[in-house]
Amino acid sequence: MAIHILYIEDDTEIGSWVSKDLKDRGYEVLWLKSGEGAVEAAADCHLVILDVMLPGLDGFTVGQRVKRNSPELPILMLSARSSIDDKLQGLQFADDYLTKPFHPDELAARIEVLVRRSGSLGGKPLEIGHLRVFERENRLESKETGSEIILTGKQFQIFMYLIRHLGQVMTKEQIYEAVWGEPYLDGDKTLMVHIRYLREKIELDPAAPQIIETIRGIGYRVKA
Amino acid sequence: MRFQRFPKFRSSLLSRYLIIVLAALLFVPVVIPISFLTSWLVNNTVINDKKQEENGHIVQRSYLTDNWHTAAKQLANASPDQIDQKLRKFKQKYPFASVFWVDHSGMTRLQLPPGRQPAKWSSDDAIQYMKANTGNRDLFAVVAFIGDKPGMKQGFMAIEIPEEYFVQNQITTSNISLFAITLLLLFAFFAGMSYLFFRGIRRRLLTLESAMHAPGEDGLPMKIHTGRADEIGLLEQSFNYMIDQLGDSRRREQEEERLRKRLISNMSHDLRTPLTVIGSHLYSLKKEPLTDQGKQSLALMQDKMSDLDHLIDHLLSYNLLTSGKYAIHRKPQDVLRIVRESAAAWYTLWEKEGLSPDINLEGEPLIWNVDEQAFRRVLDNLFQNIVRHAGSGGYIGLDTEMHHGHPALIITDRGPGMQADSSGKGAGLGLSIVQLLLKEMALGLEIESNGQGTLMRIRPLNP
């Protein structure tokens, strides 16, 4: 099933180029030139790409309405407004904020992350190294043997946090605070111990980890 | 809003202070006599009552003496029986007294209680008796010739009362302490009043002081409740007025800031939209069959477009910064954490650009008073510079170092140095923004650069 994208953009030139590029990449694109009817149209979509400067209702208002109506629907703001205030305002409801000018590859990559995170891909598992990750079922199995890998609660949370930020380096503080939900004061040792046990379960060779990469001096990363 | 310059005299602190000063001045001439009076009154009422309760009688010397002499006078030419009778009456009235009388011949006639006086008085005895009584402090004796004149030849009569039955007329120790207590109480009252007066003032001043320090929700001090309409009350009113003014100017400033930011946002939008269109066409062109020359031109155009994109960003930030509209909210926080997070975000790009990061930020948090967004902006600009101008060095180092006894953040690269002509060299806006932002956060940037690389040191200006 193709991914349906609602794209709201008033600039004809940019709009036609982006929708063509996205269609070329295999997405179904519905392009609206204003926020009118966006809330209704969004109901059948998997993702919304939203410009900020629109005739009539501005993108922030449209985005908030869409989000209120369909809280699970990922929204990507695509705007020429690059100030930090605009970004912060946008990210209050949107899931991502990309500034123009942008490279279409970057847009596509971000769309992929958002769609995967929202689970719209259905049960399609994510393949990382020798692992197969079923995000919605919270299940993890080995590609080779097909047997499930059982993780403890914290191990699973750490792993899923890194999966959600696939390809991004996350600092120890970010991981600890996301998983434990408390300030990272001296969580260093705790996190290290959990990562070590996690690696023993998921890595083929825990001494030379391939899945969870240590980024010296910063934190960890799971490469796509 | 208009204010009275001076409070009404009646409600002013001055008047209240004058009352206290007046009280202090009147202390000696008024309070001391009052305390005397009080102690005397207390003496006469309370103490006498107490004495009467204890003994059943009070005897006053003058009264007794007068009585005795009157009785003696009445007894002129009286018979011995009459004299006896009179003495018995006295004995009845003062049971604790001893009475006796001696006739003209020196014979002791009636003696109550008996046996204390010689039966027959010689002139020696008389003198002895007088002498004994004058020196005797325990016994008060009144002696009168019967008939109250020496010439009546009827003898004399005497009454003796132990001293303890007399009212004490002189000031005793208990009187003195009573007086001292009264004086002390009055003094304590006066001191208490002064203390309360100044404590009231002090408390209101402290309230005002703490109100100035404690900011409310909007970052301005909160208005305070105005009390009495005296000098401090006026100060409180003025304080509230000042808060109003501050609030107004803050609102104006915020409005201005909002307008300016919107203008900048719109400018950013208006500049970026055509840039995006150009970019989209460049991208489309790239898919067309092109000569090598064409591809090279395209790559150059794309490069310049990305420069332009950054330049717009810098220009707008610079505009905001120099107009003082870039809101910086500093708070003490661990900058190493910010550096790590920023480095984490840049990491993938560094790898892509062939830079190998060398990060040594372990250990103690480095707490500086910074604005997180601004500090990130500084790092972003510096990292961007390294990617664009020092990528050839293939190295980026993040470190801390002790510099003159204080920790500093060190960013190093192995590029051709700042003097080298780099293809991506702009007007240096990025670095100007870094300098401005750091200055706002009381941080300094030192750059040591040569052909082998560049070292950038960020440290607090006044550690």
From TrEMBL, chain A:
Signal peptide positions (record): none
SMART domains, per database record: REC, Trans_reg_C
Response regulatory domain: residues covered: 4-115
Modified positions (4-aspartylphosphate) in chain numbering: D51
A single GO cellular-component term on record: cytosol
Keywords, alphabetical: DNA-binding, Phosphoprotein, Transcription, Transcription regulation, Two-component regulatory system
Identification of the protein by name: Response regulator transcription factor
Gene source species: Paenibacillus zeisoli
Taxonomic lineage from the root: Bacteria, Bacillati, Bacillota, Bacilli, Bacillales
TrEMBL record, chain B:
Pfam families listed in its UniProt record: HATPase_c, HisKA
EC supergroup of this enzyme: transferase
Membrane topology according to the record: Multi-pass membrane protein
Single annotated GO MF: phosphorelay sensor kinase activity
Ranges where the HAMP domain occurs: 199-251
InterPro entries: HAMP_dom (IPR003660), HATPase_C_sf (IPR036890), HATPase_dom (IPR003594), His_kinase_dom (IPR005467), HisK_dim/P_dom (IPR003661), HisK_dim/P_sf (IPR036097), HssS/ArlS-like (IPR050398)
Main location: membrane
EC number per UniProt: 2.7.13.3
A cellular component annotation (GO) from this entry: plasma membrane
Catalysed reactions, semicolon-separated: ATP + protein L-histidine = ADP + protein N-phospho-L-histidine
Stretches that traverse the bilayer: 20-42, 176-198
Keywords: ATP-binding, Cell membrane, Kinase, Membrane, Nucleotide-binding, Phosphoprotein, Transferase, Transmembrane, Transmembrane helix, Two-component regulatory system
CDD domains tied to this protein: HAMP (cd06225), HisKA (cd00082)
Domain Histidine kinase as annotated: residue spans: 266-459
Name of the protein this chain belongs to: histidine kinase
Species whose genome carries this gene: Paenibacillus zeisoli
